[in-house]
Amino acid sequence: MNRITGGSLFLALIFLAGCASGPPPAVGMWGVDMNTPLGVIPVTLTLNEDGTGSMSAANLGDAPVSDVMYDGPNVTFTAEIDAQGQSVVLDFSGAVDGDALEGSFGSDFGDIAVSGTRQ
Fold first, then answer.
1. What's the rounded Cα separation, in Å, for the pair 28 and 35?
2. All domains of the chain, ordered by start, with CATH?
3. Within 10 A of 34 (CB to CB), how many other CB atoms are there?
């Protein structure tokens, strides 16, 4: 009887631990600023729990986000944008601290600093 009770308690604890983890901290909608050599570009960034997302900016249009990877507070993803008729691949690497997101986009033109807040 003790084995059944102990086993049931163990399974219940594993189930509750899985439920308590919730989505990764970076999941959600973010208002971020890309600090480019041409000035600050405001961007709306959406990251979904399933590893998809999107970026939207008045100067850059809309672009899907792919290969989203979450590791605790850290997040990486790739986006391909149209910059004045030229396709540019941006590789993001950053971290979430509460409702703040800090990181950078790596590109062929160098790193672009990014900072933002949860919307």
1. 21
2. 24-118 (2.40.128.120)
3. 24
Q: Which residues pair with 46 in a beta bridge?
A: 29, 54
pLDDT in tens, the chain (119 residues): 555 555 555 544 444 444 457 899 999 999 999 998 889 999 999 999 999 999 999 877 899 999 999 999 999 999 998 877 888 899 999 999 999 999 999 998 899 999 999 99
**Which one-letter amino acid corresponds to residue 108?**
D
Say if residues 67 and 55 touch (Cβ distance below 8 Å).
Answer: no
- Cα 110 versus chain centre, distance: 20
The Cα–Cα gap between 48 and 101 comes to 15
User: Which residue from 30, 92, 85, 77 is spatially nearest to 59, judged by alpha carbons?
Assistant: 85
| DSSP-derived secondary structure letter, 16 | H
Cα separation, 94 vs 70, whole angstroms: 10
pTM: 0.79
